[in-house]
Amino acid sequence: MSKVYKCHKISDGKVEADVTISKDPIMFYLLEPETGKMIEPNHDFTGRSMSGKILVFPSGKGSSVVQADGLFQLMKYKNQPAGMIVEYPETVLVTSAIVFEIPLVDKVDPQFYKDIKEGDRIIIDASNEEITIL
């Protein structure tokens, strides 16, 4: 049975994909563009790929250049996340998601974070400000 959660649209779009979750902030420059895998040592996402998945994470980290370029490099190889759910958005992440047309939402119903599990299939419908766990 599906469950729907309210959220706040940052970057428009609708996408359905599997979820991948990071408990640590993400620096997109420390992802391998050819695979979408995290290469940052001692990161909870190290060795995992976000390619084509909906990334749930607390925030971005790093300067504007490394964040935007990191996402751009992932896009060159078609390994960017399909969508993003962020707890604490910052300007560079927001701008990059809008420019690169990646659906991005925040201000998600807190129950979502208790219910979501790695690999769940979900829909982000940023236009209607809803997330559905299928």
- Any idea what the shape is? globular
Helix content: 10-25%
Number of contiguous helices: 3
Which percent band covers the strand fraction? Answer: 25-35%
Q: Please give the alpha-carbon distance between the first and last residues.
A: 7 Å
Largest sheet: 8 strands, mixed
Given as residue ranges, the uncertain stretches (5+ residues, pLDDT < 50) are: none
Radius of gyration: 13 Å
Mean pLDDT: 96
* SSE-based structural type: alpha/beta
Helices and strands, in order, run as EEEEEEHEHEHEE
* Strand order, sheet with most strands: 1-10-9-3-6-7-8-2
Q: In total, how many beta strands?
A: 10
Describe this entry's structure for a reader.
There is one protein chain. With 134 residues, this protein is an alpha/beta fold. Helix content is 21%, strand content 30%. The chain contains three helices and ten strands, in the order E-E-E-E-E-E-H-E-H-E-H-E-E. The strands form two sheets. The chain has an eight-stranded mixed sheet. Strand 9 and strand 10 (130-133) form a beta hairpin. Helix 1 runs parallel beside helix 2 (91-99). The radius of gyration is 13 Å and the shape is globular.
